[in-house]
Specification:
mainly alpha; 7 helices; flat
């Protein structure tokens, strides 16, 4: 795993590095800054022509997604971002882990248990099961859709 190589390079125990990573994720989630873990991507526009003096083909403009979006799509994305910011940190974590990163439910449950983050005030994190996690995820998706105004009536 990635923690092992980081721990080896730092000369620190793997569990210590894992705990630090978890604290960073919790803090970024609490501050609604989890997106900072996704590095920005750069697209080289100079390399589109083939490099040997070939003319740049206009079909490569399709690689630029912001030119392909309609105003309606941009508006929907803006509403979705606004709605996302209104979700709790736990809702954001669960949706990002399960839907965006497609992590297994057991891995998400293990992370929640390790960080002692309950999904409900009535059920401690250590007693949360898969069914409760999937129920929480469904409720978070419905809430996100409702907040964004993108749900069907």
């Amino acid at each position: 795993m990635l923690f092992r190589s980081i721990a080896q390079r730092l000369g620190r125990p793997e569990d210590e590095v894992d705990a630090l990573v978890q604290r960073i994720v919790v803090e970024l989630t609490r501050r609604h800054r989890l997106h900072l873990l996704d590095p920005p991507r750069e697209v080289s526009l100079s390399g589109l022509g083939g490099g040997d003096g070939e003319a740049v083909d206009d079909t490569h403009q399709a690689d630029l997604p912001w030119e392909d979006q309609s105003p309606e799509e941009r508006d929907a994305q803006a509403r979705l971002r606004q709605a996302w910011s209104q979700l709790t940190a736990v809702e954001q974590f669960v949706l990002e882990a399960m839907l965006i990163e497609e992590q297994d439910a057991e891995d998400v449950l293990a992370a929640l248990r390790r960080l002692d983050i309950p999904l409900s005030k009535r059920v401690p994190a250590a007693q949360t099961d898969r069914q409760q996690l999937y129920y929480f995820r469904r409720k978070a998706v419905v809430r996100l859709a409702r907040l964004s105004g993108l749900e069907e009536a």
